[in-house]
Amino acid sequence: MPEPTLTTAARPRGPVSTDARVWRTVPRWPAGRWQRPRRAAGRRTVVVSVAVLVTVALYAAVVPLFTDVDPRVVDLDGYLRPPSGEHLLGTDLLGRDLFVRCAQALRVSLLLAALAAVVSTVVGVVVGTVAAAVGGRVDKVVMRLVDATNALPHLLLGVVIASLWRGQWWAIVVSIGLTHWTQVARIVRSEILSVRTREHVAVSIVSGASRVQVWSTHLLPAVVPQALIAVVLLLPHAVWHESALSFLGVGLPPNDPSLGTLLEDARSAILAGGWWLLVFPAGLLTATCLAIAGIGGRLRDAAMPKRAVEAQVTG
User: Fold this and answer.
1) What's the pLDDT tens digit per position in 248-278?
2) 20 to 30 A from 287, CA-CA: which of 2, 27, 194, 254?
3) Which UniProt keywords apply (predicted)?
């Protein structure tokens, strides 16, 4: 328990008797004690997330380069073999090595997710900048568009877009990019409106600075960190959606390995006892998304320390 300290209330003006003092108890809490466990937990989360992400990235980058196994070669004599020394993660229904296919699938899924996250961020930055810069009716129309897009089911809209060009990788990127830009637009618009009202920006405008100078000196440095953080935060969402689209059959072709196509193959193999076809791709997908989300959340808190403290207090 903290030790209470005794302080006197403010004395009124004029003569006061010695018995007129009022005492109250004020607990003195050590500064920062409540924050230490949260900070330590946050650091542990970042360390674990970075370790998992580095391991996964090395697995996806190194294994396809240093193996002679072709993930597309069919070997019907070795189909549905459980994990062993010859096949570390077993084989699928067509006898293809799952260890190599998971590495190749993870590489493809991360690449498509990164492209989709960049597309979403670019669209969100452009829309948010236009809404904040123009203002007025344009701002209202743009924000109504953002609300309307948020009201639509993202996965359903992505399925509709991807099914129009079934099997095309760019259709997956476009379908994810056009359904995840709304939050970026809101953040960028809010940040620009906040920066524009600050005193140093007003001083620059009064001093005769042009719009280009104001944007390059004050507004752009405030938007770029938000855009970079948005890319990281959108990555796990993009990975999940790419996997969902491929699992539903509107993503990549079945012969092209991705985490979604591997999970789609596991749907039929699990009834034949091939549990490893579900466990390893699903575990890889979950670990990758959680690691990226942990790093992205920490970057967001570091870029917005005041909001992070408020979130910790209210949470």
Assistant:
1) 888 888 778 888 888 888 888 888 888 889 9
2) 254
3) Cell membrane, Membrane, Transmembrane, Transmembrane helix, Transport
Between vectors from CA 40 to CA 34 and to CA 41, what angle results, nearest 5°? 95
CATH number of the domain residue 83 falls in: 1.10.3720.10
Could you give phi then psi for residue 24, rounded to 5 degrees?
A: -140, 155
Tokens of 192: 């620009």
Instruction: Identify whether 37 is part of a domain.
Output: no
φ, ψ at 5 (rounded to 5°): -115, 145
Stated pTM of the model: 0.76
- Distance of alpha carbon 258 from alpha carbon 268, whole angstroms: 16
CA 55, distance to chain mean position in Å, is 19
Nearest-angstrom CA–CA distance, 266 and 280: 10
**Domain extent at residue 202:** 59-271
Element of type H or E holding 8: strand 4-8
The number of domains in the chain is: 1
